[in-house]
Amino acid sequence: MGSQRYQITGLDSASSLLGHDKLMIGLLLKFFINMLIHIGDTLFIHFQKFRTNLGRKKIINSCRWNFSAVTVTDVYVILNRPAEVINGKWRTTLNGISYIPPSTPLKLAQKFNISGVYKLDFPNILMNRPAKVDTSLINGTFKGFMEIIFQNNDTTVQNYHLDGSAFFVVGMDVGVWAENSRSTYNKWDDVARCTTQVFPGSWTAILVVLDNAGIWNLRAQNLDSWYLGQEAYLSVVNRNQNENSLPDNTIYCGLLSSLQKDQTQRGVKFSSAPLILACAAFIR
Ligand SMILES: *[C@@H]1O[C@H](CO)[C@@H](O)[C@H](O)[C@H]1NC(C)=O
Ligand SMILES: *[C@@H]1O[C@H](CO)[C@@H](O)[C@H](O)[C@H]1NC(C)=O
Ligand SMILES: *[C@@H]1O[C@H](CO)[C@@H](O)[C@H](O)[C@H]1NC(C)=O
Ligand SMILES: *[C@@H]1O[C@H](CO)[C@@H](O)[C@H](O)[C@H]1NC(C)=O
């Protein structure tokens, strides 16, 4: 980070000259403008560096990840495109599926074996069928090695975030990803991250080790397109180990709302509004 950009010097003399409010507003403006420039720079430099680094010979070899010998267990090519109208509403999609959160939280549905709340059928590639709204999860393999290629068919940069595991960005390029794009991957000094950029008309490939059981959110960071459905969940089940039991204050919603304990018994007064909010937060 360009720390010099954020340095504030001569605050005392300057504040007596300018007046404190004006100075603070000025400093805040400067901070935000610098931050924007910095973000822009980082994106650009990162893209340039990545493209020139791929294929370049490396000398330093110690303390780095080397994925060359890894066997990938699942491959997903996930395509986004500009918002489209599905059932009369503007929606965004991943592989033609616009995510809709169920009224029964995913994790509760899984824990209580309630079928029909979600499906584990998120497609590996864009299917030749009309786009739809659905609660479709990616079926991950515990301790598997997943390769995800984000293909951006929109005209804006997409930022994707994955909960639950850090991943490694192994490649990115302009154009449409193909099997032989793998030959350009950098597999041995990647940096662990949880968010990555995908440039317009370009692809970005990540590798992720699924060693953290749970149901994890994979989403676009842009709030508008995330809200419109540009997200999916990744389910990873460890069949050999029971998960911790649910905490006492779990909020049961949807099909499990009959299990909801009376919150007032515990000396906490809930009006209905915060309870609904908490419920909604749990669904997200
Ligand atoms: C990475 O591992 C592969 C296969 O095990 C090996 O051939 C290669 O030399 C390694 N690369 C580096 C840079 O250590
Ligand atoms: C859900 O199903 C699993 C495996 O079939 C079982 O071990 C578990 O006890 C079930 N849980 C509930 C709450 O019924
Ligand atoms: C999900 O993947 C597991 C292996 O991790 C497999 O046993 C299971 O059948 C899959 N479920 C579905 C619905 O495809
Ligand atoms: C999106 O896909 C369409 C159809 O394949 C193609 O014509 C268009 O160039 C793509 N746009 C971007 C930005 O990738």
From TrEMBL:
<dbReference type="GO" id="GO:0016491">
    <property type="term" value="F:oxidoreductase activity"/>
</dbReference>
<dbReference type="InterPro" id="IPR011706">
    <property type="entry name" value="Cu-oxidase_C"/>
</dbReference>
<dbReference type="GO" id="GO:0005507">
    <property type="term" value="F:copper ion binding"/>
</dbReference>
<dbReference type="InterPro" id="IPR008972">
    <property type="entry name" value="Cupredoxin"/>
</dbReference>
<feature type="domain" description="Plastocyanin-like">
    <location>
        <begin position="104"/>
        <end position="241"/>
    </location>
</feature>
<protein>
    <submittedName>
        <fullName>Monocopper oxidase-like protein SKU5</fullName>
    </submittedName>
</protein>
<feature type="transmembrane region" description="Helical">
    <location>
        <begin position="23"/>
        <end position="47"/>
    </location>
</feature>
<keyword id="KW-0812">Transmembrane</keyword>
<keyword id="KW-0472">Membrane</keyword>
<dbReference type="GO" id="GO:0005886">
    <property type="term" value="C:plasma membrane"/>
</dbReference>
<dbReference type="Pfam" id="PF07731">
    <property type="entry name" value="Cu-oxidase_2"/>
</dbReference>
<keyword id="KW-1133">Transmembrane helix</keyword>
<dbReference type="InterPro" id="IPR045087">
    <property type="entry name" value="Cu-oxidase_fam"/>
</dbReference>
<comment type="similarity">
    <text>Belongs to the multicopper oxidase family.</text>
</comment>
